Automatic annotation (TrEMBL):
One of its GO terms (biological process) is methylation. Keywords: Methyltransferase, Transferase. InterPro entries: SAM-dependent_MTases_sf (IPR029063). Residues 1-30 are annotated as: Disordered. One of its GO terms (molecular function) is methyltransferase activity. This is Class I SAM-dependent methyltransferase.
Length: 276
């Protein structure tokens, strides 16, 4: 991949620039539904959005790099309105030709990782950094982090073209907090198949000697232990595999215990990061 580092510092239409480079922009209906459902179910997000409303301020959500279509930004706004009906949602694109007039209660503007100078309570950047070089990820995270309100979060990740496999990082002002991997139960033969959709910060670490590789191997081992339940389907088998996984790793159980339509695992960032 070409080096885009100069673009992260480039000045453009404003004093500071939009920060980033145009990406392929592919998108589709319901492509990001897994991460959207997960985000609005998080207690810290629910609490923050409620506190913002009680303070008398409208919550602000920014979708960075929505691509060639407004579809997923509008879908995201519908999810967020369940938590905060008056949430102000803005989609940002660094490619001027993709910037749209307001529609479906969503604003659109020219901007990138600098968030067009706005402050946000929730930021989403999906399938954007996957197209950058890995050594640019931290710079992009930091640029978005500086635009967060206290208590705000960023969800950054990647998914397949139809959204059946996805993985994302949740960040706050202090840095990455968790990694979540989610897949349609019938779409993989083994849990580690999700590795192809790891966020850019981790995707090159799926090899022996790296923490995320060890987690993926433990996921497969737990899946194998749950093989006797395969006759009941991959959802039931994964619920049992989760029990084996947490017994083996002693990691805190961050994945909800309730039944989910997707197979999902959330782990602390410290479990998959090599920075110790």
């Amino acid at each position: 991949m070409a080096d885009h580092a100069h673009n992260l510092r480039a000045r453009s239409w404003t004093t500071d620039g939009p920060v980033g480079v145009p990406t392929r922009g592919t998108t589709g209906h319901n492509r990001l539904r897994k991460s959207d459902r997960w985000l609005v179910a998080q207690h810290r997000v629910q609490t923050h959005m409620r506190d913002v409303q009680l303070s008398g301020r409208r919550p602000v959500a920014i979708d960075v790099g929505y691509g060639a279509s407004h579809t997923t930004t509008v879908e995201w706004a519908r999810f967020l309105r369940v938590l905060a009906p008056d949430v102000e949602v803005t989609g940002l694109e660094i490619e001027p030709s993709r910037v749209l007039p307001p529609r479906d209660g969503v604003n659109f503007a020219l901007g990138g990782f600098e968030l067009a100078g706005m402050r946000a309570d929730v930021v989403r950047a999906f399938n954007v950094l996957r197209q950058y070089d890995v050594d640019q990820v931290r710079d992009a995270w930091e640029r978005m982090q500086t635009g967060l309100h206290d208590g705000g979060v960023i969800i950054e990740g990647t998914c397949c073209e139809v959204g059946r496999r996805a993985a994302w990082v949740l960040l706050d002002k202090h840095g990455p907090q968790t990694l979540t991997m989610s897949w349609h139960p019938g779409d993989v033969e083994k849990p580690s198949d999700i590795a192809e959709r790891l966020p850019k910060a981790l995707i090159h670490h799926n090899s022996p000697g790296h923490a995320v590789y060890d987690v993926l191997q433990e996921m497969d081992a737990a899946w194998n232990q749950a093989a006797p339940l395969a006759v009941f389907g991959p959802r039931v088998r994964w619920r049992e595999a989760l029990n084996h996984f947490h017994q083996a790793t002693q990691l805190p159980r961050l994945t909800p215990r309730r039944r989910l339509s997707d197979n999902t695992l959330t782990v602390p960032w410290s479990a998959v990061s090599d920075d110790h």
